[in-house]
Design brief:
alpha+beta, five-stranded antiparallel sheet
Length: 326
């Protein structure tokens, strides 16, 4: 059988679902075991997202680290439907299904031109309006809540409470860092002491918000001096999680690039959603979790080609030192 490249798969899907030929195909990057392809046709410009068709472990058997900071591509439709109910900006989805050989799941949707907020927000650190509308839309997304953490399709809670799962996952990250000598032993001791102290003062959130685990994911476009959020993206990676956790992830993405999230973001966010009153006291804890994951990724040579990985690992180490020293 002829090998199906992402380009061939995308072309076949466009013809099959829309009845047109692909005039131009461009790769927009990788997805989980697949690719994201931009396709120009006589009917317009579309995106085909290809995801490896590998069934995730049943939720009851899910590793605690995947529960806390993982992805589950099978959640696309439930997450999309939840967002649609509150009129969030979303891409029009024309079809979903499986490739001819069943090796990949596909999502066929309209292409949304503009800037990826995640990639652009540090560069535009002083653009108050961009950060305001980002915060406003992020807050609106977070108005979708429920009483228990986890994937959108879950009808009942996990057996293990969120806080217990979070600290178990953090323990696993610190153990991995120690086992692989990513940090000196004296820092490992400080990390464990820090974690134990935080656990002793842990407060469960009142509810859980629908969110991407890395902070806000969206496409924005500029209109004169103003900005508009045109679409939420990476929809399948959204779950109900701790508001404090994902706000820290969004903030940390700026700090990793040497920038600071401006006050306009927080003003925009709070125009849509209140912030958990325990956010400040848990800020360092949640940032430490992200940094511990990032450090393991940057130090793992088996994980693809990460540009400037050594520099990123050293920067992450510096940020961890700064956190535990304060």
């Amino acid at each position: 059988m002829e090998k199906q490249t992402p380009e061939k798969s995308a072309s076949r899907i466009i013809t099959q679902e829309l009845g047109v030929k692909a005039n131009l195909i461009e790769s927009l990057g990788m997805s989980i075991g697949g690719a994201v392809m931009k396709i120009e046709t006589e009917k317009g410009i579309f995106v085909v997202k290809l995801i490896a068709n590998k069934s995730p472990a049943p939720i009851i058997e899910e590793d605690v680290s995947d529960r806390v900071y993982g992805g589950r591509w099978t959640e696309f439709q439930p997450a999309y439907d939840a967002m649609k109910k509150v009129n969030l900006p979303l891409p029009t989805v024309h079809a979903t299904g499986y490739t001819e050989d069943d090796s990949q799941y596909f999502i066929l949707m309209d292409y949304i031109a503009g800037e990826s907020v995640r990639e652009y927000m540090s560069e535009a650190a002083t653009d108050e309006r961009l950060h305001y509308v980002t915060g406003q839309t992020f807050g609106k997304l977070h108005t979708i809540t429920r009483e228990y953490q986890g994937w959108v399709s879950m009808e009942t809670p996990y057996g293990v409470p969120w806080g217990e799962a979070f600290f178990s996952a953090l323990h696993n990250q610190i153990t991995e860092i120690a086992d692989k000598d990513h940090l000196p032993n004296e820092m490992i001791i400080k990390l464990r002491t820090f974690s134990d102290n935080q656990k002793a003062h842990w407060v469960e959130p009142e509810n859980f918000v629908l969110s991407h685990l890395d902070g806000f994911q969206g496409i924005a476009s500029k209109h004169g001096e103003d900005w508009l959020i045109d679409s939420v993206i990476d929809i399948e990676d959204h779950q109900f999680t701790d508001q404090r956790f994902v706000l820290c992830g969004h903030e940390l993405a700026m700090e990793a690039e040497g920038s600071k999230l401006p006050k306009s973001f927080w003003a925009g966010y709070q125009s849509s959603k209140d912030i958990d009153p325990t956010f400040e006291q848990s800020r360092s804890l949640f940032k430490l979790y992200y940094l511990s994951v990032w450090l393991c990724v940057f130090r793992d040579e088996s994980i693809g080609n990460i540009p400037n990985r050594d520099e990123k690992a050293e920067n992450t180490t510096r940020m961890i030192k700064s956190l535990i020293s304060t």
